[in-house]
Write a structure and sequence with these properties.
The chain is of the alpha/beta class. It contains 15 helices and twelve strands.
């Protein structure tokens, strides 16, 4: 699988620590944790979720004391307000530390895509957010560079009106500033590199996608996974081509969906192996929306918390709270206890379905549970 990973090992970890890309990844004795799934550029819904979870007040200021807030990645794309979401996370980070809490903004596959130049899902509003009085001038300079590069490779090339029109369609105002901001040394890219792809709080593992069997077989610890992801992202979109590593592989920690989608029979033993390897009791992931609520799997050992907060996915407002020995879903402002172990899951999903009556997938899931109960 990851041939590149083997070369990383402790040597890469040392290099990343030396370059300032290392961030603490494990905390103990945290009394309250709140985790929020994928935001995808929807500032308003993210704000509402944080209010409902008791993280912020109506002015957007931290009121959660020593709580640890975990945002599981995928802040950008599909919505227009990525810059506002990041600004809020930065502000809350400062305020939380002042009060003894912490904010953990994890790296998701969409953070990686933006840093590596995969812009398929960038919302037009994300470019517009960077537009200022200098944008047209920067765009013209970029156009001149594109033409020069094209002529260097093809001396007979002449930029006609069709070429110009295609450029203007593909490179909107704000594009250049967006790419600078998401570069490894840019305002957003450097912020991403200050964070981790995987962390452990108490006996709970948090990451965006999941740990695949192939990745588990490599035997990497959290330090090595975080180092590998950030080393790849630190090379930006001009890094080594055609190299599948931790940040881009479908079975890497930012992309793997098996914990969310594979059958219990296919994945149960693997889940136990992951829990043992990282010495945790629970795994919390985002990345895979579907039912519009938090979905406990494998007796609650895996919690899929990407409820689809963004309006693009339906705007289903949900967050996970871990405190007082229990797991709770704050769904549309209502607090639901999440079943674990041998707990009957039907009452939980009945309560969630009552709050989300228009979600056909959730209703079908509940019906299947009721039939097998």
């Amino acid at each position: 699988m990851h041939k590149l990973i083997i070369k990383f090992s402790l040597l890469l970890l040392s290099a990343v620590i030396g370059s300032g890309l290392f961030a603490e990844d494990s905390w103990q004795d945290v009394s309250r944790i709140v985790a929020v799934g994928d935001v995808h550029g929807d500032y308003d819904n993210f704000f509402k979720v944080l209010q409902q979870a008791g993280i912020i007040n109506r002015r957007g200021n931290w009121i959660a004391g020593e709580t640890h807030l975990v945002q599981l990645g995928d802040v950008p794309d599909r919505g227009p307000d990525t810059d506002k979401v990041i600004d809020l996370l930065r502000k809350l980070d400062r305020q939380a530390v002042r009060d003894g809490g912490m904010v953990h903004a994890l790296i998701g596959n969409h953070e990686a895509m933006n840093m590596l130049g995969d812009l398929r899902y960038v919302h037009p509003g994300e470019y517009r957010a960077f537009v200022d009085r200098n944008s047209n001038r920067l765009r013209e300079r970029y156009y001149d560079l594109v033409v020069q590069n094209r002529k260097a490779s093809d001396p007979e090339f002449e930029a006609d009106q069709e070429f110009r029109s295609t450029f203007e369609e593909q490179i909107p105002p704000g594009y250049v500033e967006h790419r600078v901001a998401w570069s490894p040394g840019g305002d957003i890219g450097s912020w991403v590199l200050q964070h981790n792809a995987i962390i452990r709080i108490n006996r709970v593992l948090f990451l965006h996608g999941g740990i695949s069997p192939g990745l588990l077989a490599e035997g990497l610890n959290m330090d090595q996974i975080n180092a590998g992801v950030k080393d790849e992202l630190s090379q930006g979109e001009n890094g080594p081509p055609d190299v599948e590593g931790l940040a881009t592989a479908e079975d890497g920690p930012l992309w793997y969906r098996g914990l969310a989608t594979n059958s219990d029979e296919a994945e149960a033993s693997h889940v136990e192996a992951v829990l043992q390897h990282f010495d945790v009791d629970y795994i919390v992931i985002g990345h895979t929306p579907g039912l519009g609520t938090i979905v406990p799997r494998f007796g609650g050992k895996v919690l899929v918390i990407d409820s689809g907060i963004s309006g693009y996915y339906g705007g289903h407002l949900s967050s996970l709270t871990i405190e007082d020995g229990g797991l709770f879903n704050t769904q549309e402002g209502e607090r639901l206890q999440i079943p674990v172990g041998d707990d009957d899951p039907v009452p939980y999903f009945e309560a969630a379905a009552a709050l989300e009556p228009d979600l056909e997938a959730l209703q079908r899931y509940l019906q299947n549970l009721q039939q097998t109960d």
